[in-house]
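pasting for ref
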Amino acid sequence: MKPGILLAMMLVTVGSAHSHEADGALFAPAFLQQVSALRDHALTDGLAYELTESLTTEVGPRLAGSPADAKAVAWGEAKFNALGFDRVTLEPASFQRWVRGEETAEILAPYPQPLVITALGKSMPTPPAGVTGEVVHFASLADLEAADPDQVKGKITFISNRMSRHKDGSGYGQAVGARGTAAQVTAAKGGIGTLIRSIGTDSDRLPHTGAMKHEHEVPTVPAAALSNPDADLLVNMLKRGQPVTIKYRLGSEFGGQYTSHNVIGDMLGTDQADQYIVIGCHLDSWDLGTGAIDDASGCGITMAAAKLIKQHLGPLRKTIRVVLWANEEYGLSGAKAYHAAHQAEMQQHILGGESDFGAGRIYALGTRVAESALPIIEQMMPLLKPLGIEYANNQSSSAPDLIPLRAAGMAVFSLKQDGTDYFDYHHTANDTLDKVDPAALAQNVAAWVVVVALAAQTEHDFGFGLTDPK
């Protein structure tokens, strides 16, 4: 028997499965059987990969504020409509556009060599002739912060701290501070520029970009990331005890106000249609690669999960809202705009989750819900276990675009992906479709189907007004 026919036979009891919970059970047994069947079907469904391939091929790099930004918004709107979402909405998100320009660097002395760099997002440009200066080396951001200004004045600072590799990506948080504030700290101490080792775990000669802090009233300097092999080269040269002089040029600059859009697709609920299970991804990407794992794959996963739920289970009680967020990469602009536009209905945002950690297999479910909602989570776990997914804890956070909603009190969940190699490609020219494993992507969809379907079908909520974790 063909899998599609078997699934159809298992889903014929839709009416009884969607009846309200009976005999004190959280979910009707027939509904749990249907979700299990859909989970298994999702493992062989290619929709998420098709969507990921479409976005990376037909739009490609989607730097917020670029011409491709508008193309991505149009792509999202068209795909939601083609997939049969009940309501498709565009909501504006405005921000200062940042434009990447020329990026060159070279060691002038004592051993002249070219360097491979990329500007950090929101970096100011160098003068047209570039920045030339002696390098002063710090092992960490903390060392730079503690340095005497006389040590930094008139020089180019270099931070060589190396990011460590972890399945959960925890090394990122320990290293990314250098990217965020090195330029401001350098400026405050009289430096003329800053270079950092890329925040990544690879050894490719491909630098990692990413946003730095840039408040226009706070002094800063032109900032760039060296590829990890070039950072090693610079360290080796500095070990020889001779002054090292570098020249680099950046043409990056702010290019005026721009209005993009959050693209929102709703699969409307039935008796609790005004309550939202909010899932999604960020639609923008950095401009070096095609944004496949960051975050076209997340868009494919969440759009496909909502489509499969509607197609095979029919409307559930709560509305499933998929948001393709605008300008996550250098401003969380879409996340902030959404929160501002929906403040009056925050308590109707019942539970949220975002897929924004690549395309690796999911190994755990983490939550941050009220204790009274934990029995719902407990009923999810037997359906997730066949996918190799265990329960993590109830102190989990969420991906960046949900920060404003989480801070407002919305409960969240996190389907934790294996990110062992994620930071090999993150924010580099290597973020391309070949890094996406279709089978792993389908496993993601199967997990999202389970969590979202049960969350949208329960008559209960997950707790609003939870204290935002540190």
